[in-house]
């Protein structure tokens, strides 16, 4: 299978890894890998079919190569994926941590994949469980129900499972993947309506999809600069410790972030990219294994 190649020169500072980093679900993500030579590899379900995408910098250009039926679509979307439509210039920092991070990382932008389904599946898997549990289930579903990544992708890469593949998973196979009944039903509801999930409002019509899941998808699929992940187990506390020196709940986080509207998510992204870590006062939340229940 031959590669389709595009070269694109951004007219702004660009940190490719920083921009696409939120798409990665753990170091073992079958749909996102960093090759030994530093190239970034992603897979996705385009309207025209599955595809693999390789990204690398070369003499100021972005060299993008793609394989598979959806190769042209993934290549067409590279500028948006790397933040070409983002508008960070109007952002104003109100806290020193954010101001300093922005100064140190001028290439950090908000990209968009335009692929709702590929962001929705891992977001649903992350509902009300630990990151370890969610990543384990994501790896398992990709490996058993996703297609092999087209082209010379790193070993083990897979394209995320399609809505049709999700609808074909039996109850026992869901159990083996460690997915409980509530998340299973939400995934099946979403798969049945996948063709219509074109806006935040339509996402929220799906039983089991609320503001948190919608925000997680909006940030990645549409590059939404304001959609904060309300209801997250960690983010309010991280934002609180980073900006005001104490833990916050959702209401407190939104109050602190209000001056950043309509770019509140960008402020959170700078906090996450800064390397800040909140204090630890208790053991980590224990992961459950639904496969053993």
The profile of the biggest β sheet is:
5 strands, antiparallel
Helix tally? 14
Question: How many distinct beta strands?
Answer: 5
The low-confidence runs, each spanning 5 or more residues with pLDDT under 50, are none
Task: Please explain how this structure is put together.
With 293 residues, the protein is α+β, with helices and mostly antiparallel strands. The protein has one domain: Orthogonal Bundle (Endonuclease III, domain 1), CATH 1.10.340. The chain contains 14 helices and five strands. The chain has a five-stranded antiparallel beta sheet. Strand 2 and strand 3 form a beta hairpin. The model has no long low-confidence stretch (mean pLDDT 95). This is 3-methyladenine DNA glycosylase/8-oxoguanine DNA glycosylase. Keywords: DNA damage, DNA repair. InterPro entries: Alkylbase_DNA_Glycosylase/TA, DNA_glycosylase.
Short descriptors:
293 residues; alpha+beta; Endonuclease III, domain 1; five-stranded antiparallel β-sheet; 5 strands
Summarize the structure.
This is 3-methyladenine DNA glycosylase/8-oxoguanine DNA glycosylase. This protein has one domain: Hypothetical protein, domain 2 (Endonuclease III, domain 1, Orthogonal Bundle), CATH 1.10.340.30.
How is the topology of this model organized?
Layout: E1 4-8, H1 16-20, E2 32-34, E3 40-46, E4 49-58, E5 61-67, H2 71-76, H3 78-81, H4 96-104, H5 116-125, H6 131-145, H7 163-167, H8 171-176, H9 181-192, H10 200-203, H11 211-221, H12 235-243, H13 250-257, H14 264-273
Antiparallel strand pairs: 1-5, 2-3, 3-4, 4-5
Helix pairs in contact: 4-14, 5-9, 5-11, 12-13
GO molecular function: alkylated DNA binding; DNA-3-methyladenine glycosylase activity; DNA-7-methylguanine glycosylase activity
Keywords: DNA damage, DNA repair
Protein name: 3-methyladenine DNA glycosylase/8-oxoguanine DNA glycosylase
């Amino acid at each position: 299978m031959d590669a389709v190649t595009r070269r694109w020169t951004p007219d702004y500072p660009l940190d490719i890894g920083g921009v696409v980093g939120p798409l990665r679900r753990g170091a073992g993500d079958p749909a996102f890998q960093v090759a030994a030579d530093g190239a970034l590899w992603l897979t996705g379900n385009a309207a025209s079919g599955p595809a693999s995408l390789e990204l690398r910098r070369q003499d100021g250009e972005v060299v993008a190569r793609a394989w598979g039926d959806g190769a042209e679509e993934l290549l067409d979307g590279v500028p948006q994926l790397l933040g070409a439509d983002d508008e960070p210039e109007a952002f104003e920092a109100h806290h020193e941590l954010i101001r300093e991070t922005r100064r140190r990382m001028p290439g950090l932008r908000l990209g968009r994949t335009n692929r709702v389904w590929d962001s929705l599946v891992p977001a649903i898997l992350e509902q009300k469980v630990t990151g370890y549990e969610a990543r384990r289930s994501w790896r398992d579903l990709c490996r058993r129900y996703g297609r092999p990544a087209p082209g010379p992708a790193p070993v083990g890469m897979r394209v995320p499972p399609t809505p049709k593949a999700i609808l074909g998973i039996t109850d026992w196979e869901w159990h083996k993947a460690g997915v409980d009944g509530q998340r299973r039903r939400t995934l099946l509801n979403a798969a049945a309506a996948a063709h219509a999930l074109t806006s935040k409002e339509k996402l929220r019509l799906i039983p089991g999809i609320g503001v948190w899941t919608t925000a997680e998808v909006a940030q990645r699929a549409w590059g939404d600069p304001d959609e904060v992940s309300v209801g997250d187990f960690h983010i309010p506390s991280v934002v609180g410790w980073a900006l005001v020196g104490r833990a916050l709940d959702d209401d407190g986080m939104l109050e602190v972030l209000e001056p950043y509207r309509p770019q509140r998510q960008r402020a959170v992204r700078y906090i996450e990219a800064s390397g800040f870590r909140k204090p630890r006062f208790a053991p980590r939340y224990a992961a459950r294994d639904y496969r053993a229940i």
